[in-house]
Amino acid sequence: MIDAYLTHLAILIGIYSILAISLQLSLGYGGLLNLGHFSFFGIGAYASALLSVEGVPFVICLLFAGMVAAFFGWLLSIATNKLKGDYSALVTLGFSFVVYAVLLNWVALTNGSLGIAGIPRPNFLGIDFSNNLYFLLLVVFIALLSYLFIRKICSSSFGRALESTRDDELAAKLLGKNTTKLKRASLLIAAFFAGISGSLFAAYITFIDPSSFTFTNLIPILSIVIVGGLASLPGTIVATVVVVLLPEPFRFIGFPTSILGPIRQIMYATILLLIIYLKPRGFYGKIDLE
């Protein structure tokens, strides 16, 4: 029983770590306050689920989820192209509400509030991933590939140019950098990996509905990025473990489910406020929060 519970937590840590490092790319390295990032997670989950229930192989569902999310990331980058700071944040926030409304009301496609049930677990290379231990190995493998790929991007000339755009966009333009393309590419890549994590989430839970992808669900992921520190991928992984495990002791105290959810949200919001006030760079961050 304990082993199954720990495996479940490890799977969630793996899935959320992919989502968090993808947000770190656009927020920590690109300086884009994207409050619609969790919507890419939901788009990827639905794209993957709709294909998988039709019997499409998981690998195709996974890649399709990433590509669909990346497409919407590209569209969002166009909408926010000339916006900065609070204005950009408001537009991306509005995007998250639009995505939620579509998932809720496009009943013919998404089944509305009833959600999509019976999402099959992956089964390929002769391995049945309905076993949670095997599914954990799959998540760890994809999370490791995602981490290495994003770390390679961040340490490349593209990553350095992206950081210069974050720190001083005008100076980057004077040095001949196309800052619009840099920010657009970072948002597109971040959305792709958010879609990948959404696909894994849908395959693991085997049921999704619009309530799983509301704006409030972004708060834990945003907490992870800020607690770990902006522009710090290792810090993001450490913070994912901390933030996912932190509320778990409340499960054993005996609080009802109706109280447990709000307690989590209060805890995440409190962590954010404390980090912003006491340690603006987070635990391993390279830049201060502004």
Jot down its keywords.
mainly alpha; 290 residues; two-stranded antiparallel ribbon
Structure description:
The protein starts with a helix and ends in a 12-residue tail after the last helix. The protein has twelve helices and four strands, in the order H-H-H-H-H-E-E-E-H-H-H-H-E-H-H-H. The protein has helices spanning 2-29, 37-52, 58-79, 85-105, 107-110, 132-155, 157-167, 169-174, 179-205, 218-228, 233-245, 257-278; strands at residues 116-117, 123-124, 127-128, 207-208. The protein is mainly α. It has one domain (8-214). A hairpin with a 2-residue loop joins strand 2 (123-124) and strand 3 (127-128).
Question: What's the short version?
Answer:
With 290 residues, this protein is mostly helical.
Please outline the major beta sheet: 2 strands, antiparallel
The radius of gyration over CA amounts to 19 Å
Strand content: under 5%
Question: What is the quaternary state of this protein?
Answer: single chain
Per-chain topology:
Elements: H1 2-29, H2 37-52, H3 58-79, H4 85-105, H5 107-110, E1 116-117, E2 123-124, E3 127-128, H6 132-155, H7 157-167, H8 169-174, H9 179-205, E4 207-208, H10 218-228, H11 233-245, H12 257-278
Antiparallel strand pairs: 1-4, 2-3
